Amino acid sequence: MTAPVTFQAKDYKSDLKPIWCPGCGDFGVLQGLYRALASIGRPPHEVAFISGIGCSSRIPGYTTAYGFNSVHGRSLPIAQGVKLANPELLVVVAGGDGDGFSIGGGHVAHAVRRNIDITYIVMDNQVYGLTKGQLSPTSPKGLQTVTSPLGSLEEPINPLLFVLAYGAGFVAQASPADMPGMTALIEEAIRYPGFAFVNIQSPCVTFGEDDQQLKVHKAKMKTLASLGHDPADQLKAMDLARSYGTELYTGVFYRNPNPPLSYEELIKLRQAEESKKARPRNRILDAYLQK
Ligand SMILES: Cc1ncc(C[n+]2csc(CCOP(=O)(O)OP(=O)(O)O)c2C)c(N)n1
Ligand code: SF4
Prior knowledge:
Shape: globular
Helix content: 25-40%
Order of helices and strands: HEEHEHHEEEHEHEHEHEHH
CATH topology: Rossmann fold
Number of helices: 10
Strand content: 15-25%
CATH superfamily: Thiamin diphosphate (ThDP)-binding fold, Pyr/PP domains
Bound molecules: thiamine diphosphate, iron/sulfur cluster
Protein backbone atom coordinates (compact mmCIF):
# COMPACT_ATOMS: atom_id res chain seq x y z
CA MET A 1 0.00 0.00 0.00
CA THR A 2 1.41 3.46 -0.91
CA ALA A 3 1.40 6.15 1.77
CA PRO A 4 -0.94 9.11 1.07
CA VAL A 5 0.86 12.20 -0.30
CA THR A 6 1.14 14.91 2.33
CA PHE A 7 2.15 18.53 1.88
CA GLN A 8 4.13 21.03 3.86
CA ALA A 9 3.84 24.81 3.94
CA LYS A 10 7.02 25.13 1.83
CA ASP A 11 5.36 23.20 -1.03
CA TYR A 12 3.10 26.20 -1.69
CA LYS A 13 5.91 28.77 -1.54
CA SER A 14 7.19 30.06 -4.88
CA ASP A 15 10.75 31.22 -5.60
CA LEU A 16 9.61 34.83 -5.85
CA LYS A 17 10.73 36.82 -2.80
CA PRO A 18 7.98 39.08 -1.38
CA ILE A 19 8.78 42.78 -1.83
CA TRP A 20 6.54 43.94 1.01
CA CYS A 21 7.99 46.41 3.55
CA PRO A 22 9.74 44.67 6.48
CA GLY A 23 7.11 44.13 9.19
CA CYS A 24 4.09 44.26 6.83
CA GLY A 25 1.22 42.13 8.17
CA ASP A 26 0.85 40.45 4.78
CA PHE A 27 3.95 38.28 5.47
CA GLY A 28 2.05 36.59 8.30
CA VAL A 29 -1.07 36.13 6.19
CA LEU A 30 0.97 34.49 3.43
CA GLN A 31 2.50 32.06 5.96
CA GLY A 32 -0.97 31.32 7.32
CA LEU A 33 -2.22 30.55 3.81
CA TYR A 34 0.69 28.15 3.15
CA ARG A 35 0.06 26.37 6.46
CA ALA A 36 -3.71 26.14 6.00
CA LEU A 37 -3.25 24.66 2.51
CA ALA A 38 -0.71 22.14 3.81
CA SER A 39 -3.16 21.08 6.50
CA ILE A 40 -5.94 20.69 3.93
CA GLY A 41 -3.51 18.72 1.78
CA ARG A 42 -4.59 19.68 -1.73
CA PRO A 43 -1.63 19.74 -4.17
CA PRO A 44 -0.67 23.20 -5.47
CA HIS A 45 -1.91 22.38 -9.00
CA GLU A 46 -5.44 21.94 -7.59
CA VAL A 47 -5.42 25.42 -6.02
CA ALA A 48 -5.89 28.84 -7.65
CA PHE A 49 -5.21 32.23 -6.06
CA ILE A 50 -7.01 35.16 -7.63
CA SER A 51 -6.35 38.78 -6.69
CA GLY A 52 -6.87 42.34 -7.86
CA ILE A 53 -4.20 45.02 -7.48
CA GLY A 54 -2.56 46.19 -4.26
CA CYS A 55 0.30 45.15 -1.99
CA SER A 56 -1.86 42.32 -0.61
CA SER A 57 -2.90 41.35 -4.13
CA ARG A 58 0.67 40.21 -4.81
CA ILE A 59 -0.13 36.95 -2.97
CA PRO A 60 -0.68 34.76 -6.11
CA GLY A 61 2.92 35.37 -7.25
CA TYR A 62 4.27 34.08 -3.97
CA THR A 63 2.59 30.68 -4.25
CA THR A 64 3.19 27.62 -6.39
CA ALA A 65 -0.56 27.33 -7.05
CA TYR A 66 -2.23 28.70 -10.16
CA GLY A 67 -2.52 32.46 -9.87
CA PHE A 68 -4.09 35.49 -11.49
CA ASN A 69 -2.99 38.95 -10.29
CA SER A 70 -5.78 40.66 -12.18
CA VAL A 71 -7.32 44.13 -12.28
CA HIS A 72 -7.97 46.43 -9.30
CA GLY A 73 -11.35 45.53 -7.79
CA ARG A 74 -12.18 42.64 -10.13
CA SER A 75 -10.86 39.62 -8.26
CA LEU A 76 -14.29 38.29 -7.26
CA PRO A 77 -15.86 38.12 -10.75
CA ILE A 78 -12.70 36.47 -12.09
CA ALA A 79 -12.55 33.98 -9.22
CA GLN A 80 -16.19 33.04 -9.74
CA GLY A 81 -15.52 32.43 -13.43
CA VAL A 82 -12.48 30.28 -12.61
CA LYS A 83 -14.47 28.17 -10.15
CA LEU A 84 -17.38 27.68 -12.53
CA ALA A 85 -15.04 26.73 -15.37
CA ASN A 86 -13.28 24.17 -13.16
CA PRO A 87 -15.28 23.38 -10.00
CA GLU A 88 -12.58 20.90 -8.92
CA LEU A 89 -10.16 23.77 -8.21
CA LEU A 90 -9.87 25.15 -4.70
CA VAL A 91 -10.21 28.89 -5.29
CA VAL A 92 -8.90 31.49 -2.84
CA VAL A 93 -9.34 35.21 -3.46
CA ALA A 94 -6.87 37.54 -1.72
CA GLY A 95 -6.72 41.33 -1.67
CA GLY A 96 -6.94 44.60 0.19
CA ASP A 97 -9.78 46.55 1.76
CA GLY A 98 -9.54 49.12 -1.05
CA ASP A 99 -9.65 46.46 -3.74
CA GLY A 100 -12.55 44.67 -2.07
CA PHE A 101 -14.71 47.41 -0.59
CA SER A 102 -13.97 50.52 -2.69
CA ILE A 103 -13.65 49.82 -6.39
CA GLY A 104 -14.70 46.17 -6.00
CA GLY A 105 -17.43 46.78 -3.42
CA GLY A 106 -20.26 46.23 -5.87
CA HIS A 107 -19.11 42.68 -6.54
CA VAL A 108 -19.17 41.54 -2.92
CA ALA A 109 -22.95 41.46 -2.56
CA HIS A 110 -23.33 39.35 -5.70
CA ALA A 111 -20.54 36.94 -4.81
CA VAL A 112 -22.22 36.41 -1.44
CA ARG A 113 -25.74 35.87 -2.77
CA ARG A 114 -24.51 33.68 -5.67
CA ASN A 115 -22.73 31.47 -3.13
CA ILE A 116 -20.05 29.94 -5.31
CA ASP A 117 -17.66 27.86 -3.20
CA ILE A 118 -14.71 30.26 -2.98
CA THR A 119 -12.86 31.78 -0.02
CA TYR A 120 -12.37 35.52 0.16
CA ILE A 121 -9.46 36.76 2.30
CA VAL A 122 -9.30 40.53 2.76
CA MET A 123 -6.10 41.95 4.22
CA ASP A 124 -7.65 44.92 5.93
CA ASN A 125 -4.97 47.54 6.69
CA GLN A 126 -7.30 50.56 6.58
CA VAL A 127 -5.26 52.35 3.87
CA TYR A 128 -4.30 52.06 0.22
CA GLY A 129 -0.80 50.63 0.72
CA LEU A 130 0.45 50.17 -2.84
CA THR A 131 -0.39 53.72 -3.94
CA LYS A 132 1.32 55.20 -0.89
CA GLY A 133 -1.23 55.64 1.83
CA GLN A 134 -4.46 57.24 0.66
CA LEU A 135 -7.68 56.79 2.65
CA SER A 136 -9.41 53.46 2.15
CA PRO A 137 -13.06 52.59 2.83
CA THR A 138 -12.14 51.08 6.20
CA SER A 139 -9.92 53.99 7.36
CA PRO A 140 -11.08 55.11 10.80
CA LYS A 141 -12.61 58.56 11.08
CA GLY A 142 -9.89 61.05 11.96
CA LEU A 143 -7.05 59.07 10.33
CA GLN A 144 -4.40 61.39 8.94
CA THR A 145 -3.08 60.27 5.58
CA VAL A 146 -1.64 61.89 2.45
CA THR A 147 -5.20 62.52 1.25
CA SER A 148 -6.51 63.54 4.67
CA PRO A 149 -3.71 65.52 6.36
CA LEU A 150 -6.23 67.04 8.78
CA GLY A 151 -7.90 63.70 9.50
CA SER A 152 -10.59 61.74 7.64
CA LEU A 153 -14.12 63.12 7.93
CA GLU A 154 -15.80 59.91 6.72
CA GLU A 155 -17.16 56.98 8.68
CA PRO A 156 -15.50 53.69 7.72
CA ILE A 157 -17.57 50.90 6.25
CA ASN A 158 -17.87 47.74 8.32
CA PRO A 159 -16.73 44.78 6.17
CA LEU A 160 -18.03 42.19 8.65
CA LEU A 161 -21.53 43.65 8.81
CA PHE A 162 -21.52 44.28 5.06
CA VAL A 163 -20.91 40.62 4.27
CA LEU A 164 -23.16 39.31 7.05
CA ALA A 165 -26.00 41.55 5.89
CA TYR A 166 -25.92 39.98 2.42
CA GLY A 167 -26.23 36.54 4.01
CA ALA A 168 -22.75 35.02 3.77
CA GLY A 169 -22.60 31.52 5.20
CA PHE A 170 -19.16 31.93 6.76
CA VAL A 171 -17.76 35.15 8.22
CA ALA A 172 -14.66 35.37 10.41
CA GLN A 173 -11.99 37.82 11.52
CA ALA A 174 -8.34 37.17 12.31
CA SER A 175 -5.00 38.86 12.88
CA PRO A 176 -1.46 37.64 12.13
CA ALA A 177 -0.75 38.63 15.75
CA ASP A 178 -2.20 35.17 16.49
CA MET A 179 -0.71 32.92 13.80
CA PRO A 180 -2.22 29.59 14.94
CA GLY A 181 -5.66 31.15 15.38
CA MET A 182 -5.51 32.90 12.00
CA THR A 183 -4.29 29.75 10.22
CA ALA A 184 -7.09 27.67 11.73
CA LEU A 185 -9.67 30.25 10.60
CA ILE A 186 -8.30 30.32 7.04
CA GLU A 187 -8.50 26.53 6.95
CA GLU A 188 -12.05 26.51 8.30
CA ALA A 189 -13.10 29.12 5.73
CA ILE A 190 -11.60 27.10 2.86
CA ARG A 191 -13.34 23.97 4.09
CA TYR A 192 -16.74 25.73 4.31
CA PRO A 193 -18.83 24.54 1.34
CA GLY A 194 -19.86 27.92 -0.07
CA PHE A 195 -18.77 31.56 -0.14
CA ALA A 196 -16.59 32.22 2.91
CA PHE A 197 -15.13 35.51 4.06
CA VAL A 198 -12.22 36.19 6.42
CA ASN A 199 -11.35 39.77 7.32
CA ILE A 200 -7.71 39.76 8.40
CA GLN A 201 -6.44 42.80 10.25
CA SER A 202 -3.09 42.97 8.48
CA PRO A 203 -1.21 46.15 9.44
CA CYS A 204 0.48 48.46 6.95
CA VAL A 205 3.60 49.47 8.89
CA THR A 206 4.53 52.19 6.39
CA PHE A 207 1.30 54.13 5.86
CA GLY A 208 -0.99 52.78 8.59
CA GLU A 209 -1.85 54.32 11.94
CA ASP A 210 1.62 53.44 13.30
CA ASP A 211 4.15 50.62 12.93
CA GLN A 212 3.22 48.92 16.20
CA GLN A 213 -0.19 47.59 15.16
CA LEU A 214 0.65 43.91 15.65
CA LYS A 215 1.55 44.66 19.29
CA VAL A 216 -1.68 46.66 19.63
CA HIS A 217 -3.63 43.72 18.18
CA LYS A 218 -2.01 41.27 20.57
CA ALA A 219 -3.04 43.36 23.55
CA LYS A 220 -6.53 44.13 22.24
CA MET A 221 -7.64 40.84 20.66
CA LYS A 222 -10.51 38.90 22.21
CA THR A 223 -11.61 35.60 20.78
CA LEU A 224 -15.31 35.20 20.12
CA ALA A 225 -15.06 31.76 21.73
CA SER A 226 -13.93 33.36 25.00
CA LEU A 227 -17.13 35.47 24.92
CA GLY A 228 -19.16 32.27 24.60
CA HIS A 229 -20.38 33.24 21.13
CA ASP A 230 -22.29 30.53 19.25
CA PRO A 231 -21.29 30.89 15.54
CA ALA A 232 -24.68 29.50 14.51
CA ASP A 233 -26.37 32.61 15.96
CA GLN A 234 -26.57 34.98 12.98
CA LEU A 235 -28.23 37.85 14.84
CA LYS A 236 -25.69 37.77 17.65
CA ALA A 237 -22.95 37.66 15.00
CA MET A 238 -24.31 40.90 13.54
CA ASP A 239 -24.52 42.45 16.96
CA LEU A 240 -20.88 41.56 17.72
CA ALA A 241 -19.76 42.69 14.25
CA ARG A 242 -21.08 46.18 15.00
CA SER A 243 -18.03 46.73 17.20
CA TYR A 244 -15.68 46.57 14.18
CA GLY A 245 -13.23 49.47 14.61
CA THR A 246 -13.54 49.62 18.38
CA GLU A 247 -13.10 46.03 19.57
CA LEU A 248 -10.88 43.45 17.87
CA TYR A 249 -12.86 40.23 17.98
CA THR A 250 -11.29 37.23 16.30
CA GLY A 251 -12.87 33.92 15.40
CA VAL A 252 -15.98 32.82 13.56
CA PHE A 253 -18.79 35.37 13.70
CA TYR A 254 -21.15 33.20 11.68
CA ARG A 255 -21.09 29.72 10.19
CA ASN A 256 -24.35 28.54 8.65
CA PRO A 257 -25.07 25.26 10.46
CA ASN A 258 -26.99 24.01 7.40
CA PRO A 259 -25.04 25.26 4.38
CA PRO A 260 -27.26 25.48 1.30
CA LEU A 261 -26.15 23.96 -2.01
CA SER A 262 -23.55 26.11 -3.75
CA TYR A 263 -24.26 27.71 -7.11
CA GLU A 264 -22.14 25.14 -8.94
CA GLU A 265 -24.03 22.28 -7.25
CA LEU A 266 -27.33 23.89 -8.26
CA ILE A 267 -26.08 24.10 -11.84
CA LYS A 268 -25.26 20.38 -11.83
CA LEU A 269 -28.76 19.58 -10.55
CA ARG A 270 -30.34 21.86 -13.17
CA GLN A 271 -28.31 20.19 -15.94
CA ALA A 272 -29.36 16.73 -14.75
CA GLU A 273 -33.05 17.78 -14.68
CA GLU A 274 -32.88 19.44 -18.08
CA SER A 275 -31.14 16.47 -19.68
CA LYS A 276 -34.15 14.30 -18.78
CA LYS A 277 -36.60 16.61 -20.57
CA ALA A 278 -37.46 16.12 -24.24
CA ARG A 279 -37.06 19.54 -25.85
CA PRO A 280 -37.96 20.70 -29.34
CA ARG A 281 -34.72 21.18 -31.30
CA ASN A 282 -33.58 24.73 -32.03
CA ARG A 283 -32.76 24.60 -35.75
CA ILE A 284 -30.63 27.75 -35.75
CA LEU A 285 -28.58 26.63 -32.76
CA ASP A 286 -28.18 23.09 -34.15
CA ALA A 287 -26.96 24.48 -37.48
CA TYR A 288 -24.49 26.72 -35.66
CA LEU A 289 -23.17 23.87 -33.50
CA GLN A 290 -22.67 21.66 -36.56
CA LYS A 291 -20.43 24.24 -38.28
C1 LIG B 1 -8.79 50.79 -12.05
C2 LIG B 1 -7.68 51.20 -11.13
N1 LIG B 1 -7.89 52.22 -10.29
C3 LIG B 1 -6.91 52.58 -9.41
C4 LIG B 1 -5.73 51.90 -9.41
C5 LIG B 1 -4.64 52.34 -8.46
N2 LIG B 1 -4.55 51.48 -7.31
C6 LIG B 1 -3.74 50.38 -7.33
S1 LIG B 1 -3.76 49.55 -5.87
C7 LIG B 1 -4.85 50.67 -5.21
C8 LIG B 1 -5.32 50.55 -3.79
C9 LIG B 1 -4.58 49.57 -2.97
O1 LIG B 1 -5.17 49.44 -1.70
P1 LIG B 1 -5.75 48.07 -1.20
O2 LIG B 1 -6.60 47.43 -2.21
O3 LIG B 1 -6.41 48.32 0.13
O4 LIG B 1 -4.48 47.13 -1.04
P2 LIG B 1 -3.13 47.31 -0.23
O5 LIG B 1 -2.14 47.89 -1.19
O6 LIG B 1 -3.39 48.21 0.93
O7 LIG B 1 -2.80 45.92 0.18
C10 LIG B 1 -5.18 51.67 -6.12
C11 LIG B 1 -6.10 52.79 -5.84
C12 LIG B 1 -5.56 50.82 -10.30
N3 LIG B 1 -4.45 50.07 -10.31
N4 LIG B 1 -6.55 50.50 -11.15
S1 SF4 C 1 3.05 49.77 1.90
FE1 SF4 C 1 2.00 48.89 3.67
S2 SF4 C 1 0.71 47.24 2.83
FE2 SF4 C 1 2.26 47.76 1.28
S3 SF4 C 1 3.98 46.35 1.65
FE3 SF4 C 1 4.41 48.23 2.79
S4 SF4 C 1 3.59 47.84 4.84
FE4 SF4 C 1 2.66 46.33 3.48
